[in-house]
Amino acid sequence: MGAYILRRFLLVIPTLLGIMILNFALIQFVPGGPIEQIIAQMEGSGDVFEGISGGGSEIVENDDSSYIGGRGLSPEFIAQLEKEFGFDKPPVERFLLMIWDYVRFDFGESWFRSISVFDLVVEKMPVSITLGLWSTLIAYMVSIPLGIRKAVRDGSSFDTWTSGAIIVGYAIPGFLFAILLIVLFAGGSYWRFFPLRGLTSDDWETLSLFGKIVDYFWHITLPVLASTISAFATLTLLTKNSFLDEIKKQYVMTAKAKGLTESRVLYGHVFRNAMLIVISGFPALFIGVFFGGSLIIETLFSLDGLGRLGFEAAVARDYPVVFGTLFAFSLIGLVIGIITDLTYVFIDPRIDFESRG
């Protein structure tokens, strides 16, 4: 097992390098870079994307690059901007310098926020941790018992109506459900039971420990519900199908023939085998929700998390934030893949990745 883990960690290096090379190469062909953004704003064009869509100034050709709205700015000023942002160097040299900094975990500073990328991510992380952790935990705590119950009562009326409810919940987009919650419970048109902004109240620091806990859960109730609604279907049906496959196997029939109770057979023998796929996928699911975040849900509930950070950095062409977070999150995702494999072995020691290698 040790040799397998070592090989997986060594494989992280070329995989991570490939991700960075591919995204860096794609960025070179994306119009509306950071210098173009600044020039468009200085020329009063508003947003550089207006010019790309045909609503702004014409593209003016320079010696090396084309800039929207650069008609009234001197070539010397543009060259100074290029030097300040590092675009006076060839792309290969810029990429190698960036990777060298990232190897030392130096992610640089945001071009437009005057704050380090690391501090910026740490600042936005509480929102993403809240949505990711609670959404994942609630989805598992509800889906696993429900899936087991549906497997035991397969074909019954309970199984039928719960399947219908799950499918309806899965069909409702998270952002639409969020709007419904706001309209009903956050002062939209009916009741105002829950707040609509932030993770905590303005007077949170003055509250007691119990008051802080209540205030925190009071604020996260609606966004967490909106983030969780679509996760129930996949987990519940996966749990049900896994249990149904195991219940039909010979060892279950043998255990029942020996006189074991149904609960003993179900939780003492079937559970470990049936939950292998479901439980081992927890790390990857949490990281997916944590880093993916829902931009729309964060926006609807005025939450400033990693989802909005990534979107705003991409729109503003804030490359240190884009590539710094891409490198960090890709590295964490690859390590989580290794942890997921170890979780498989922990749940079922019969699995041996070493022999497969």
Automatic annotation (TrEMBL):
- What are the GO BP annotations of this UniProt entry? microcin transport; transmembrane transport
How does this protein sit in the membrane? Multi-pass membrane protein
Query: Predominant location of this chain?
Result: membrane
One GO cellular component term = plasma membrane
* Keyword Cell membrane among UniProt keywords: yes
* Family membership noted in the UniProt record: Belongs to the binding-protein-dependent transport system permease family.
Q: What is this protein called?
A: Inner membrane ABC transporter permease protein YejB
Organism listed in the record = Flavimaricola marinus
- Gene that codes for this? yejB
